[in-house]
Amino acid sequence: xxxxxxxxxxxxxxxxxxxxxxxxxxxxxxxxxxxxxxxxxxxxxxxxxxxxxxxxxxxxxxxxxxxxxxxxxxxxxxxxxxxxxxxxxxxxxxxxxxxxxxxxxxxxxxxxxxxxxxxxxxxxxxxxxxxxxxxxxxxxxxxxxxxxxxxxxxxxxxxxxxxxxxxxxxxxxxxxxxxxxxxxxxxxxxxxxxxxxxxxxxxxxxxxxxxxxxxxxxxxxxxxxxxxxxxxxxxxxxxxxxxxxxxxxxxxxxxxxxxxxxxxxxxxxxxxxxxxxxxxxxxxxxxxxxxxxxxxx
Length: 297
Prior knowledge:
Layout: H1 3-21, H2 30-43, H3 46-72, H4 91-113, H5 116-122, H6 135-160, H7 189-206, H8 210-227, H9 246-256, H10 267-272, H11 276-296
């Protein structure tokens, strides 16, 4: 397939989605969102929006997305969905995690966020409502960012597991054999910088409006908090994403330390065979469940 053929297919897909979108009813939240966005532009500078707006989006999204997993530990019914049921969360671990998070967020990530304004200025990225991409373009861009970040994460994460450097950096993240949502960004400062770089590559490639920065932040946090939640909850809408790894996939990585290195998707581990132990583990689980059912009958 030539490059022109690929471009024609993408253009056709875009036109098809745009045509379908024209028949959808108006979003009742669009006008209030537009009013709020224009109010923000009229009352705050671009530096304030890019810097403090990005910080607020990150902090609010992070801790709100952590709430369900935090609450699950107090609901007996939800314990049947906990993956490592023999390793419950403890207040001591959660408090330690929270303190490290605050340090990483405000002394590692905030200085990086301060560069957001200069990034948008250098690449002439618009803030105006009229320049904002349609929802389906934003979804496609976030998916593209996820694909790029996932590739970066797989290879750099796998490198951080190398026996010569593991104990100096990545071991911090593996202090918790049974992960919980808030632990998603619990890491050595160097790891925050190394693996976090993958987040920004997609932004450089796709960003055509400041809204993508915030949309991608929310999507990435939603994914990483979900896979670290420690709970495999049915009817999780993220499971509708093609090749999505999920909590059970990443939980095995924390439990086993080897394999399942990707952050979002399963294809890199499948290509390089680093999911072989996980597959064997699942097969063993299935056999045990069949034996239990036979005994019960």
